[in-house]
């Protein structure tokens, strides 16, 4: 028989029980409510005690709940797939980590996370590198003029590939630094995440105070207009501050040892 516990989405500053509706993880979309301690609470729903797959459906549901709660409260996101055995253990957890959660909630109050990805347009980046690097142009031209079969110009082709890659790395660092210099004055903090494509210059998350969100938007929009002929800018948010808060709850605290 399947055992049920409480799936935890986030921690909020609430001194009364709150019902957010039928939004929870699982096929039956259970009620999302709170487990409270003093003036903080865990946002939870009833769910089977099991290991949750990081599937598209599960991830979207988890994020949707956090985003819904974020409309009304400052949120501290809890790691996906966190399930406690019962409400009593969650209250013990909130009591034990009360000062930590209160401090972090105060730090995150009226702040949002905004994501910026900057990508070179495919048709321009290689031409820019050729125009800026005479040695690469020279070797490339020699290969194009050569009557030798491809297997006999392998070394030259490999050399060009290595030089282009090194040039892209230097160029990426310079341009990422410039974008960060433009946006840093309008954020509280930022995180550089892993670049996902060869043509990606920057993949960053910014923690922005709500009072500066409009200014940050304007800077991203200005950058997009200035560089639209050579850059693609993907702008996401506001979302919960996942890259700045990572509430990890140990198995022992969940009663699942």
Q: What is the CA-CA span between the terminal residues?
A: 19 Å
Secondary structure: helix percent: 40-55%
Number of DSSP E strands: 10
Total count of helical runs of at least 4 residues: 8
Q: Tell me the series of helices and strands, N- to C-terminal.
A: EEEEHEEHHEHHHEEHEH
The number of distinct structural domains comes to 2
- Average of pLDDT: 87
Let me know the largest β-sheet: 6 strands, antiparallel
Provide a compact summary of the structure.
Helix content is 42%, strand content 26%. The protein has 8 helices and 10 strands.
Topology:
Blueprint: E1 4-12, E2 19-22, E3 31-37, E4 40-48, H1 56-70, E5 75-77, E6 83-84, H2 87-96, H3 98-108, E7 111-120, H4 122-132, H5 134-145, H6 154-183, E8 189-192, E9 200-209, H7 213-227, E10 231-239, H8 251-254
Antiparallel strand pairs: 1-4, 1-5, 1-6, 2-3, 3-4, 7-9, 7-10, 8-9
Helix pairs in contact: 5-6
Write up this protein.
By secondary structure, the chain is of the alpha+beta class. The protein is built from 8 helices and 10 strands. Strands 1, 2, 3, 4, 5 and 6 form a 6-stranded antiparallel beta sheet that branches. α5 runs antiparallel to α6. The longest helix has 30 residues, at about 155-185. The two termini are about 20 Å apart. The mean pLDDT is about 85.
């Amino acid at each position: 028989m399947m055992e049920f516990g409480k799936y935890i989405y986030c921690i909020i500053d609430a001194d009364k029980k709150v019902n957010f509706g039928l939004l929870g993880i699982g096929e039956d979309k259970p009620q999302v409510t709170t487990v409270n301690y003093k003036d903080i609470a865990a946002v939870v729903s009833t769910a089977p005690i099991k290991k949750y797959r990081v599937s598209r459906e599960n991830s979207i549901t988890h994020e949707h709940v956090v985003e819904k709660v974020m409309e009304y409260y400052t949120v501290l996101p809890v790691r996906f797939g966190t399930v406690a055995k019962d409400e009593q253990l969650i209250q013990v957890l909130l009591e034990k980590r009360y000062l930590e959660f209160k401090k972090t909630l105060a730090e995150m109050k009226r702040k949002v996370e905004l994501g910026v990805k900057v990508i070179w347009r495919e048709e321009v980046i290689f031409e820019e590198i050729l125009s800026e690097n005479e040695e690469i142009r020279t070797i490339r031209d020699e290969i194009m003029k050569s009557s030798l079969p491809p297997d006999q110009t392998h070394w030259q082709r490999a050399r060009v590939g290595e030089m282009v890659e090194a040039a892209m790395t230097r160029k990426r660092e310079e341009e990422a630094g410039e974008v960060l210099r433009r946006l840093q004055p309008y954020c509280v903090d930022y995180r550089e995440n892993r670049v996902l494509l060869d043509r990606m210059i920057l993949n960053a998350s910014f923690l922005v105070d709500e009072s500066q969100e409009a200014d940050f938007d304007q800077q991203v929009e200005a950058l997009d207009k200035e560089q639209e002929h050579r850059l693609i800018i993907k702008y996401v948010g506001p979302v919960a501050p996942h890259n700045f808060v990572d509430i990890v709850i140990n198995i022992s605290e969940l009663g699942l040892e």
